[in-house]
Amino acid sequence: MTDAADDGVVETSRDGAILRITLNRPSRRNALSRSMTDTLVATLTAAATDDSLRAVHIRGEGSDFCAGVDWVASNAGERRPRTGDILRRQPHTAHRVVELVHTLHLPVVCTVRGWAAALGCNLALAADFTVAAKDAVFWEPFLGRGFSPDSGSTWLLPRLVGLARAKRMLLLGERVSGADAAQWGLIHAAVPENELSAVSDELVERLASGPTVAMGLAKQSMHYGQHASLSDTMIRELYNVELSCRTTDFKEGLAAFRDKRPPEFQGR
């Protein structure tokens, strides 16, 4: 098989209002080639402005989630990248993927089996909910390869599990099982392998049936509050309440409460 043939693809499909994204390069543990990263950026950018979507689900084909960026292929060949290549490219490629997942005004769910390493690990951590097999492996291997961490790992990990555990993963390169990741609060849940698809699908469908606008605003407020004061965050919340009160879903929520029935949100 040629390198071009094994470059991998990012497959997308629509399941009603759910966008399903599959990283498909199982021969390389779904390590992201440049073309795959570019497709992910384009797909998530388009999703950010698609009013018909209500949730995003990301998974890997085969037995692994994602082994990060394919650095071996990226650095193959006789010509060395010019000085400053990483600083010039990464904000628009790997880092942009993490940023889009984190800021998207749609709930994002990752399903992880096997390896979630480097960018693959941080992609899963940037999602709103990650469900993993109990024997999945979360790994930040950067220092073991001789370079410092990137793709948001030094921002995400301390906020999710505290500085001490972040140092264990980043400085010592400790591998964390899916079961331990759930116990630490690093991810949403860890389940037996044979239950992974069903649990993930149930969660995605539940999120996709929610009040999409209000959910996106709540996600924005929580992220804003990570670097703002309580007073500033509550002011941001008021603006978001003002917006969400103008949605059709707000009216439906009130009507359902009055009628003592479950709401049927439309995402508008």
Automatic annotation (TrEMBL):
Q: Which Pfam families match?
A: ECH_1 (PF00378)
Where do the coiled-coil regions begin and end? Answer: none
Could you tell me which InterPro entries the record lists for this protein?
A: ClpP/crotonase-like_dom_sf (IPR029045), Enoyl-CoA_hydra/iso (IPR001753), Enoyl-CoA_hydra_C (IPR014748)
What are the recorded GO MF terms, alphabetically?
Answer: catalytic activity
Cited CDD domains: crotonase-like
Entry's family note: Belongs to the enoyl-CoA hydratase/isomerase family.
Name of the protein in question = Enoyl-CoA hydratase
Q: Which organism is it from?
A: Mycobacterium lehmannii
